[in-house]
Amino acid sequence: MLSLSAVAAPAYAAPPPSTPHRDPGNGPDRNDVAATDPPMSAARAATGENVAGDRSGYPRRTKLRVYPENPADKSIKLGLAPYHALAPKLNALQGRSDRISVEIAGQSGLGRDLYLVTLTAPESPAETRRQDAWRSLIENDPARAARDPFLRHGYKAPVWINNNIHGNEWEGTDGALRVIEKLATSNDPKTAELLKRNRFYFNVTANPDGRVAGTRQTSQGFDPNRDFVTASQPEVRAMRGIAIGKQPLMMLDEHGYVENTLIEPTTPPHGQNYDFDLYIKHGYANGLGMEQAVKALGRPETAKPEIPFRDYEPGSWDGWAPIYTAQYAMYHGAVSFTIEIPMRVNNQDYDTQPVPELQRRSVINTEVVEATIGSTLNYVDRNRGELIANQIEMFRRGEAGEAQREIPDGFVPGFGPEDRYRTEFPRAYVIPAGADQRSAVAASRLVDHLVANDVRVRQADRPFSLAGRRYPAGSYLVDMHQPKRGLANVMLEQGSDISAKVPVMYDISGWSHRLLWGASVDIVRQGRLDVRAHDVAAASPTGGIDAAPGRDLALKLTDGKDVSAVNDLLNRGLALGRAADGTIVVPASARPAAAEVADRYGVRFTEATGAATPLGRKTIAGAVGADELKALRDMGFDVRPVSAAVLNAGFDWSRIDLLFVSSGLRYTDLTPAAKDALRAFLARGGVVTRGATGARFNTDAGLLDARPVAGWEDGNGVVSVVNGTGPVGAGALPDSFVYGPFWFTDLGSSVSVEQRYASGNPLVAGHWRTRDDGTGGPLQAAGQAAVVSGTSGLGGRVVLFGTEPLFRDHPKGLYSQVAKAIYWATSK
Prior knowledge:
Blueprint: H1 42-45, E1 51-52, E2 62-63, H2 86-96, E3 100-107, E4 113-119, H3 125-140, H4 142-147, H5 149-154, E5 157-163, H6 171-185, H7 189-197, E6 198-203, H8 208-213, H9 234-246, E7 250-256, E8 262-263, E9 267-270, H10 276-295, H11 308-311, E10 318-319, H12 325-330, E11 335-341, H13 347-352, H14 355-382, H15 384-400, E12 428-431, H16 440-452, E13 458-460, E14 464-466, E15 469-471, E16 476-479, H17 485-492, H18 513-516, E17 522-524, E18 533-535, E19 544-546, E20 553-555, H19 560-571, E21 576-578, E22 584-586, H20 591-601, E23 604-607, E24 613-615, E25 619-623, H21 626-634, E26 638-641, H22 644-648, E27 658-661, H23 672-682, E28 686-690, H24 691-701, E29 707-710, E30 716-723, E31 735-739, E32 742-745, E33 751-757, E34 763-767, H25 778-781, E35 785-791, E36 797-801, H26 815-825
Parallel strand pairs: 5-6, 5-7, 7-11, 9-10, 19-23, 25-26, 25-27, 27-28, 28-36
Antiparallel strand pairs: 1-2, 3-4, 4-6, 8-11, 12-16, 12-17, 13-16, 13-18, 14-15, 20-22, 20-23, 21-22, 21-24, 29-32, 30-31, 30-33, 30-34, 33-35, 35-36
Helix pairs in contact: 6-14, 10-14, 19-20
């Protein structure tokens, strides 16, 4: 229940350590499920207008469109609110109360509205403008904000409650609805006072498509709680907008299910770019308060909540990766938490438990959500001044370029050397313009992504010199003396090899937009930034044609956008060519179309020289993960999802050019008829594989003579590679990404090495250990073949990837390597 009384923090007492459950989709599970096309949703057919009221004050009433009743909504069986019931409830509350505002934060992948509910005391337009000005001052002039007594007294503390980001972890929505209704309708004077001092934002369901379907993922098959530094999903982009626009002091992300209830803060490693001292004090104290609130429910099932920071071993529930909602929100100034409610009602339990038992569990879970929210709102109200000062100080340190603080042992109970993660921020990053930029379109994409994440980027008005290097006008500068320097650095640094620091990691441990997105990015360690520049709202256009009229055009495939441009032209029925080095040739007669796609995708055509073989439109049969399906389609490939079941049901191979195998397809699971049809295709068509499933398929189907060796299953991160001169490896980036890495040995004479893991230790950043028996580690992978190509005994061309070039829509600079593999494997 929402309580307005203070919750006393208990004395520290560590219960026995435990191990949290691991979510599906991690590790080897990635290879087992092939992506399918999402069904069309009734949401797309729903009618209704969003009628906005006055946006200048509060309340802001929106007449929400009402969706048709859907008896198939998976939440109904649990006695919870189906998605179609949310808009009527919120419309009714807006009619009853002047404390509640509802806005549309965005739409889901299938077009369902995302409801952002604000609870606060009514505000005049002038009062709202003052609140907005104070919020801006905190970020943009934190030193002045710290001196402003009116801000300290009058600023409404913003709190963000995020719910149901995993669609089949339902009860966050229902617990939030209880709190929303109480705040909106209570006659308690304490509630009225609470809303005068604070603003509470509720993202009612962050993943409505998953809620209705009873799936963890979005309709595109993505886990949105792994997507925050890439933001490939519309639901995640909406949450990013909330984090930036509302600038919460504290946030909760309500999940399930971990027995007893799990309440962050996390175990180490903690993200090295955080000002962790500004997080852990209130993170731990509020965690203890939520623990007491959950215990106070008096339920045996909630008697022993778990706080990973206190109760778990290092690495088992870490705070390292910025891919999660809570960890991402920290970079925008929030003290944030993931909450895992206790009673499992999804997956196998949903199908096997009696309905009364499922509903009993859901009642308990809803109470836990309500308790954690209520306790948090009380904590913020009691500690409002300190939390405001906390956020101001984070932004002030960033703007001033101050070093992170050394945190002493015992700063909070249990804090010790294992919790100490720090970094040294560089003075700046430079993204050069001009001929030395490997891919201007990649630089433009990176700049736009940084700006979309509220990272400040400037563009030089004239040539300049930094750190002994000369840069042309138009180059981009990321001055690391900025409020959100931690977010800038976590995207642009290479990361750290933390393999020796913790025994296990919960999910990925390495990422780098600088190394994996295809742009050239220089590091300036120190010095003055005497650069005349202007703020960037969007990157400069990069597309164009650098060839004389009447000449054939050439396009090198250095980026996925280059591939998109090529496939766009092919899909128009234009006849293109492919040179021996993989360059795409566009005839002079297609120049108007080339100019159009150059502008659309930001690519640059040069003048073609030499001969080229015809290149036609490619259709792919894809037994691939959801992330790979999206990446391939984003590049413009026509992909038909397949699996063992689809092939066994009878599949028309006549229009297929290539089979891509990475998930959900085992050759040994095929019927004799399906095998015969497949082998007939393999005699003429190309094959690209990735990972464990792809390596097994290659072996079972007898394609290339290459023995796959599996690295440590949990190994992941950025790796250094050495590229060959073949059609796939030539011109690739010097870094790649792995997740359950593979390499290939005992290569036949007809197999070529396109890419090798670098010698020594190829791991640049991440977590990749050697097994206890001395196998599977990065030192064993060093120098081994990571990507190979060749012609199979059946006649088709084959490329095998031991790396992860399309992982979760992140390593965008590797996409062109996959496209080159596809074009080569389908060429004769």
